[in-house]
Fold this sequence. Notes:
The chain is an alpha+beta fold. It folds into 2 domains: 5-169, no CATH class; 255-344, no CATH class. The chain is built from 11 helices and 9 strands. It has helices spanning 5-22, 24-35, 40-61, 74-107, 120-132, 136-139, 145-168, 185-190, 234-245, 251-257, 267-276; strands spanning 174-178, 192-195, 213-217, 281-282, 300-304, 308-313, 324-329, 333-337, 343-344. The strands form 2 sheets. It has a 6-stranded antiparallel β-sheet. Strands 2-1-3 form a 3-stranded antiparallel β-sheet. Helix 2 (24-35) runs antiparallel to helix 3 (40-61). It is elongated. The N and C termini lie far apart (84 Å). Bound molecules: zinc ion. Residues 179-180, 183-184, 187, 206, 210, 212 line the site of zinc ion.
Amino acid sequence: MDDIAPGLLEEIRDSFTHKVSTSPKIAKLYKAIQDGTATYIEAEEYAYEVGAVLAEAFSEHLSAAVLPDGKMYFNIADRVLRPLLEEDHAIIADAAVQVQTALNQKAGIHLKAQTAPVNNDRIEGIINKVSAADSFDDVAWVLDEPVKNYSQAVVDDTLKVNVRFQGKSGLRPRIIRQAERKCCEWCSRLEGEYDYPRVPPDVYRRHERCRCTVDYNPGSGKIQNIHTKEWQSEEEYAKLMARKQLGLTSLAKSLADHPKRLASFTPASLKAKLEAEGLEVKPLKNGSLKNIPFADGGGYKVNFEDGGLLQYHPAARSHHGGAYYKISTGKGGTHRYDLEGNEIDG
Ligand SMILES: [Zn+2]
């Protein structure tokens, strides 16, 4: 039997390359990307259009009629679809990195734009689905919408790696997700502006046919000292979000609302209770007790929902007349309490 894979790959690649280079929409978006005027919104459109012409090239050259037994065998899928999906990734990732580079330059951020790696899991997902069916015609749809979605995800992933990289470098990038009118309830709920690291884990994700936009803003562009700022980690934030969605209020939050309840704990029993709730209790990050574990006479701190922070400072080296708790919330500001829950002067 003739090996049809090399010929098919060449035909589809020619057609894909031709479509990319002759599409007026792609040309217009590419020019904006080259000029440095494009944002992530244009990068997402570009990804969608590139994905759409790859899907078109697949549908023009692939059908049960041209495949042996009318089936897309795994070894054909792997040698025809994989390289094209990788090329699609390379074209889009390159454009997305150019957008990020221009945005960095404009904001005066001297950080290298990061490239999203090829998502092999998604490529394998597509290959496996297409090769699982007895007749290719039953699964041809997998090379349509899912290919466009895979392409859009290259930009979403680029945004994600850059936001994380900048956040960990001490910037506070902002992500702005806007739902397309009448997209869906899931997307409406994700709509909003988020400052790293307080970012819902799903903000970079999109379901099929989702044309919502996810944009990026470098924030103030100023590097903050992440060693002195009390920032919670992205992982911690995700954990707190998950609790909130379940309607759970953390003990720390209820103490912020009802500080008198502090009296029913000792610093040690409170620490144990917070840990039992799954919160991450860490040594203090500032002052003379910096990084000294509670067990060695240090204090502790714990982040809680809505940007809250609860700290315990022992009597040793206290500037507030003995041991105290300090609780900060976005809305309520910062308050200090003695171990009985009475407010003391800052
Ligand atoms: Zn959507």
